[in-house]
Amino acid sequence: MKKIVFIVAFLLVAGATWAQKYAFVDTDYILENIPSYTAAQQQLDQISNQYQKELETMHAELEKMYSDYQTESVLLSDDMKRKREDVIISKEKEYKSLQRQYFGPEGELYKKREGLVKPIQDDIFNAVQEIANEGSYAVIFDKAGSMSMLYTNPKFDLSDQVLQKLGYKN
Fold first, then answer.
1. Residue 3 domain flag
2. Contact in structure between 8 and 145 (CB atoms under 8 Å)
């Protein structure tokens, strides 16, 4: 009797699993076809380059200060050496602080990215969620994510459907 109940339960679970619908989307493809995302990426790249140039200039100044100190250290008194070292150390701290301010986990570039890209990603997520509910999909995978997909059948790709739901034609 226990075997029969187990077999029936197994068949019900297996049948329910086979009845589930699965699909995938390619968020890289979707993002490439959204003009506001491309514009946001270009804006972020410009800001990043601007910050990077500022940091490179500051780093070059630091290198010059250190190089000058090394060549002049023979001629400097101990008191002058300490003063120069303090100036160099404070400049290094300023450089590292600015680096964190621009590129750190809570830095300006991160905040700007949150403001520009996150709303687009949220729209994509909401569109995928709507499509999943309308089509009764159990799981929708992201082909662009870190998950490996060795083979994907294009008939299960909902990327164009997501773009349509967002109002973009392909």
1. no
2. no
